[in-house]
Amino acid sequence: RWPNQSSDGKWIAFDAFGRVHLQEVAGGQASGAPKRLTPDAAGAPPREYAPAFSPDGKWIAYVTWSDADGGAVWKAPAPGAGTGAPVRLTKVTGHYANPVWSPKGDRIVVIRGSGLELRGQQPEEEEYFEIRWLDAGGGETHYVTSVKLADTFKFHPQAFWSMDATRIYFRDPVEPEKPTDPPKNLLVSVRLDGTDKKKHLQFPAVGDVVPSPDGQWVVFTSRDNVYVTALPPIQVAVPPEVGLKEGAVPVWRLSDQAGGYVGWADGGKTITWGLANDFHRLTVTSAIQFVEEQKRKAEAKKRTERETAKKAGAKDEPDEEELRVPRSEKITIRLSVPRPVPEGAVVLSGARVVSMKGEEVLENADVVISGNRIAAIGPAGKVTVPANARRFDASGKTIIPGLIDTHAHLHYSGFELFPETKWEYAANLAYGVTTVYDPSAPSLDVFAQAEMVEAGLMLGPRVYSSGDVLYGGQQADIFAEVNDQDDARRQVRRMKAYGARMIKVYQQPRREQRVWFAEACRELKMLLTAEGAGEMHTDLTMAIDGYTAFEHALPVEPREDYVKLLAASKTHYTPTLLVSYGGPWGELYFWQTANPHDDPKLNRFVPHRTLDPLARRHPWITPEEYHFPTVARGVAKVLRGGGNVSLGAHGQLQGLGVHWELWAMAGEGAIGKPAALTPMEALRAATILAADKIGFTPDLGSIEVGKLADLIVLDGNPLEDIKNTAKAKWVMKNGELYDAATLRQEWPHERPLPAFFWREQEEAAAPAAR
C-alpha cells in the first residue's frame, strides 16, 4: 500500500505488515528483496504507514500509529542519503495520515484526525479531518481547513501542493440535495490559511484525485481504473464536470484492471499506481496519444461498418467496441515473512471430542498438538505423547473444532491505519471463531490485515475475504462494469491479484453477466458466491449456472424440487438467519430474550459505545411472529436433502453473534414449531461444511490428525444443549492456546491480551453512564 517512487526512479517505498519497506529498481524490474526503512527497535515500535519521498530523493516522510501512544509524522533518510536515525517531526501526538512534500521540499502537508481516539471513540465515528502543514525540519503544525469524509473506501482524504506552494488542493465531497442523488466530488484549492476557496473540477464517484506537480493534469481513480484529465488553467464560475466516458473536459482511461494509490513521478510526466504487489508506471503524454489513436481507429472502423450496413440495407446499429488501454510498465515486488509456528507440544487430556469426522464422538480422549497441527487423537493415556509436552486437564469438557463464520462482516469501512489490537478480531477469537470469510470488505484494508494476522503481527482468527464486491450499481465507485466475458475475466483477475480465493458478485442485474462471472471463475480456479437478495429465481439460476455459494435466506421455504436442485449443484447455502428475509430479523429475537448488555465477557471485547445502542433499545415482537424459525426449517430440508449449508452471522454482533446464528439454525425461537437442525447438524454447518464452502477442508473444519490445530474446549456438551457452544474454557488457534474469558495466551507463551486503545477511556467513565 502507498507505493511511492523516488525522484530518480531507482527506489519504491511502500507499506506492508505495518512497516515501510524499500524496493530497489534496476532495468525496469525489482532488484533484490525489499528492505526495511527503519531498523527494528526494542519493545513494540509503532506501526508505520504512508511513505512519501522528498522531491530531492533524500528523505522519506511517513506516519506512525500506536494504540498506547497515538501517532506522529516522521522522516528518515532515503537510500544513499546517509544512515541517520528517523526524526520525529510533529510535537503533538495525533492521528496523522498521507504526508506530501512541497515542490521545494521545505514543507509537508498532512492529514490529522479530530482526536476521537482520545475520546474513546471508534474510527467509524470520525466526522472530519484537518488539513495541516509543517516545516520539513519539524515543529508546530499549521491549520489550513477541515474536510468531510468522502463516500469511498479510502478513509483518509489527501491534500496536495500547488506548483508554487501557495495553495493546497484537496477533494471536497458535495453534500447531496436528496438521498437519491449520486455522489459527487469537487477538486478545490485554498490558500495556506484556508481562505480563497476555488473550485476547479467536479467528479462523479471517485477514489483518489491527484493533481500533477506541474499543474497541468489530474489523475483520478474510479471503479478500480485510472483516468487522467487536464486541470483547467483558469477558474470559472461553475467547475467543469468530469465524466468517465463523456463530459465537459476530455478524459482518458489508462487501465482496465487496476488502480489504487495513484501518484505522479518525474515532475508530472509519469503516472504511477499500484495493484496488490505490482507497481505501474505510465508516461502521461504517450498514454494519451495511444488512447487518441485507438479512438481514431475505432471511429474509422465504425464508419466502415456503417457504410457496409447501408449498402446491405441493414439497420445502422454497429456494436460499441471497448477501447484498448495503453500498456503500463509493471514492477512486481515480492516480500515474504514467515508464519509463526509454536515450538513444542501440548496435550488436552480426558475430554469428549466431537471431531466432525462424520458424526464421530470420542469419550475420554487425549488430543496431542505438535507445533500448529494435530499430531494424535485417541483414548486418554493410550496416545503417544512427546516427553516435553505441556498437559492441560480437559476432563469433563467437550472439544469441538474452531467455528468458521462464512459471512462475517468485520471490515465495513476501510480505516487504512490499523489498530494494533483490533477488537472485532479479538471478540470473535474469544468466542471460538477461529476462521472468518468476509464477503464484502475494502480490498486495500482486509487483505493487508489478513496478512498481518498470518504473520503473527495482529491477533485474530484466520481472515479470508472477497475484497470489494463486484457490484452492479452504476453510481458507486466500486461499480464493476461487465459488458462481455472479457470484462468478467478482468474483474476476477483483479480480485485474485489482491488475494481473494472466493469473490462475491453483488446484484449484477442480468443473468448473462452472472454467467460470465461463473465462467471466469471456472477458468481462473476461483470460488464464487453472490448476494441472494431475496430473489428465488436469482438464487436458483445461480445454482444452475455454477456458483459455488450464495448468501442470505431463500425468500420462501424451499419445495422438494428446489431442494433437489441445490443438492445436485452442491451450491453452499448460507442463510444468515440473524438478518433473514421475510419477517423480523433473527437478531431481534436474541436482543429481546437475552441480556448481552450486561455480559461481562462481551463488554470486555466490544466497546461500550458500540454495544450500548444495540442492546438498550430494540422493538418487541411476539415470539410467534418471528420468521427465522421457518427459514431454519428450510435450511434443514436442504441439508437433509443432500445439499450444503454453512453458517454466516453477518457481523450483527461480533463474537457472540456467531453463537446466536448457530442456535437459530438448531431451532432456537421455534416456538410451537418443529425444530430445524439437530445440534450435530448445526455444528457441522459451523465447522466442516463451512470449511468446504471456502475451500479449506484439507486443513480446517474437523479434529483430525494432520489438520491445523483450531479448536474450542467447552465446559458443557453442545450435543445436549446447543447453547453450551458459548461456554468456552479455552480457544486454540494455530496451536496457540488462549483463555476464552480474557484471551490471555497460555501456550506456548504466557502473556495477556494487549489493551485496546479505547479501554482506558471506558474505564474512566462514570458507572452511571452505563
Chain-wise SSE layout:
Layout: E1 4-5, E2 11-16, E3 19-26, E4 29-36, E5 47-53, E6 59-66, E7 70-77, E8 87-88, E9 96-101, E10 107-112, E11 128-135, E12 142-148, E13 159-161, E14 167-173, E15 185-191, E16 198-203, E17 209-211, E18 217-222, E19 225-230, E20 251-253, E21 260-265, E22 270-275, E23 278-283, H1 284-312, E24 329-332, E25 345-354, E26 361-370, E27 373-379, E28 390-393, E29 398-401, E30 403-405, H2 423-430, E31 433-438, H3 443-454, E32 462-465, E33 470-471, H4 485-498, E34 502-506, H5 511-524, E35 527-530, H6 536-545, E36 549-551, H7 560-569, E37 572-574, H8 586-593, H9 600-605, H10 608-616, H11 628-640, E38 644-645, H12 656-665, H13 679-685, H14 688-693, E39 711-714, E40 728-733, E41 736-739, E42 745-747, H15 759-764
Parallel strand pairs: 25-28, 25-29, 30-31, 31-32, 33-34, 34-35, 36-37, 37-38
Antiparallel strand pairs: 1-2, 2-3, 3-4, 5-6, 6-7, 7-8, 9-10, 10-11, 11-12, 13-14, 14-15, 15-16, 17-18, 18-19, 19-20, 21-22, 22-23, 23-24, 25-26, 26-27, 29-39, 39-40, 40-41, 41-42
Helix pairs in contact: 4-5, 5-6
